[in-house]
């Protein structure tokens, strides 16, 4: 399975549809709020949300939706990234509620080679997140520094730093014959 892309693999106009989606639970939303100390009752207090807001129910905190989409995009976009350079824009355009399933896709807007180092480039992308009914809930643009193929080759190839399993008393190794079963 591919995890991220090198600079050469990105094409302007390409669209990566991230899979699978994620159904947002009340637990997900509340845990994220508590971990990040966002105690707004719109996200945590069902009674408040039901009687004091236009939605009549808790709204999933936007930063969780953004974080979820950013994470969904990693295998397709930034899994090999050298650096996330900039979040250019972030818009929450519709609410997400407990029980909604979020899907995402990313479009490559532009790319250019680094002017300071010849082994990397920058990719400019836009990610949208949408619910199970197709309603777009979040849109963000970012710039990611990604390696060129020569950068990856110089550092160990496709999976740099991956260890090799060592045969021992529990595992004889790949080349050993399979043990007989009783």
From TrEMBL:
Pfam families: MC_hydratase
Recorded superkingdom: Bacteria
SUPFAM superfamilies listed in its UniProt record: Thioesterase/thiol ester dehydrase-isomerase (SSF54637)
PANTHER family: BETA-METHYLMALYL-COA DEHYDRATASE, MONOAMINE OXIDASE-RELATED
Name this polypeptide is given: MaoC family dehydratase
Renumbered residue ranges of the record's region Disordered: 153-182
Listed CDD domains: FkbR2
């Amino acid at each position: 399975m591919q995890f991220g892309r090198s600079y050469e693999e990105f094409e302007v106009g390409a669209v990566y549809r991230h899979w699978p989606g994620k159904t947002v639970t009340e637990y997900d939303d509340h845990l994220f709020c508590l971990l990040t100390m966002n105690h707004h009752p719109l996200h945590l207090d069902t009674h408040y949300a039901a009687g004091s807001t236009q939605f009549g129910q808790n709204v999933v905190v936007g930063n969780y939706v953004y974080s979820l989409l950013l994470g969904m995009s990693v295998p397709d976009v930034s899994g090999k990234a050298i650096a996330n350079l900039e979040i250019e824009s972030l818009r929450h355009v519709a609410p997400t509620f407990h029980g909604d399933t979020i899907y995402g896709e990313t479009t490559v807007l532009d790319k250019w080679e680094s002017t300071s180092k010849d082994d990397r480039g920058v990719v400019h992308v836009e990610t949208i997140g949408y619910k199970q009914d197709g309603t777009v809930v979040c849109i963000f643009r970012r710039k990611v520094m990604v390696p060129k193929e020569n950068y990856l080759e110089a550092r160990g190839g496709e999976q740099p730093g991956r260890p090799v399993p060592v045969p021992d008393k529990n595992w004889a190794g790949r080349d050993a014959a399979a043990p007989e079963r009783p």
